Structures are given as C-alpha cells and as structure tokens.
Amino acid sequence: MSTVNEKVALVTGGSGGIGLACVQRLAKDGYKVAIHFRSRPEEGEKLKDAIPGAETFRYDLSEEAACQDLVKDVKSRMGRIDVLVNNAGISIDQLLPFAKPSDFDRLLQTNLKPVFLLSKFCSKMMIRNKSGSIINITSVVGHTGNPGQGMYAATKSAITGMTRSIACELASYGIRANCVAPGFIETAMTSALAPEVREQLLSRIPLRKFGQPSDVAEAVAFLASDQSAYVTGTTIHVNGGMFCG
Question: Which residues are catalytic?
C-alpha cells in the first residue's frame, strides 16, 4: 500500500483562495501536489517553489481537450493521481429575467463539465490503483438558492447530484466521492464589500462571521485521508450554520 508521501493530489484552481488553502493543507499532510491554474501564473510558480515536490499545470479547463491533457500531463510528470480536488470555477450573477443563455452555457462549460471530465479521466487511473478520493467543491447556494445566482446554483446543485451517483458507481473499486460546500468565505471579494452589505450577509450566518479558506481546506484534508474511509456520496457543509442539511 502506498504511503501518503508517495501519493499525488491534483487541485484545480490551486493558485489562490480556497484552492491555495487546499494545496497548502494537502502538502502539509505529505501529498505531492499538482497545482492547476488558468490565471495568476506568478502565484502558481511561487507556490511551487515553496512546496517540496509540487508541480504546476496551466490549462483552460473550459476547453474539453484540456481536461484530458491535464490528467495525462500530471500522470507523465508525477506518476499517478490519488486525490482529485475539483475546485476551479466561476460565478456569473444575474436575475433570471436578464440572464443570458450564453452566460449559462459558459457556467456549464467552466463549472460543471470539467468536474465530469476530470472525474472520468482520473477515475480510470484510480480504478487501476483500487483506491482514490474525488472531492468536489460546491456551494451553500446550491442547497439554499440565492437571488441573482440561479445559474451558478444550478451548476453547483448538479455537481452534488453527480457526486452522489459516481460515489455509488466507484465504491466497489475503493474510490470515494464527496463534496465540500462552502458558505461565505473571507476572500479578496468579500473584503471589498461595502460595510452594510457585509452586515447583511453576516446576519444570515448563525456564527456571525465569514469562514476562512483554511476552514474549507480542513474538510478537504479529512476527505482525502483514511480518516474518512467510510465516508462517500455525502456533502460536508462549511458555512457557519447557514444550512445544515
């Protein structure tokens, strides 16, 4: 059986925010981390230099062929993939009457289809190893809804349903699939909000504070580890009590 130090974790969108926190936390646990990014190459390279054994991979995952190329590249350079963290994604907010079909298509192509493709390609490698963990980052709004985020919520809800299904399909091969659903997390975006908007958001959170990227990364590390060996097809909610389903 492989030790953690021999295992490889692929984190998409790994050069900033929640992805960065996941990269750092998994590296702390001894994983060799494949850091994917589409933008912010400087941050990605700095992160690679700071983490022993890490490698960086720059791909636009909205391009279908890029998903397969990424998995092949990681395998070629790092030998295997034991943990897949599907974190990369975007949000396009708009009220339904004004929502553009082209924006909905872009969200599906960026948020949903890469999760399907990367899970598909990585699972083939994991089946041969008879083990693996697929961890999909979703969102509290995929469970609660949120005004102006119907298109985004649709992609995150779809990921949740897909994860439950592939958990059933892959369990016999020793592969687990789960979601982590963050609530409002302290990022550059939330820091830039007007004070009254922040207060409005905080009023919806029983713990009365935003989460930290490291809070999400801790849940990811748990699902990547043998401590969660009997956990599959579920969602860990990291939202300060906004939703506890």
Answer: 152
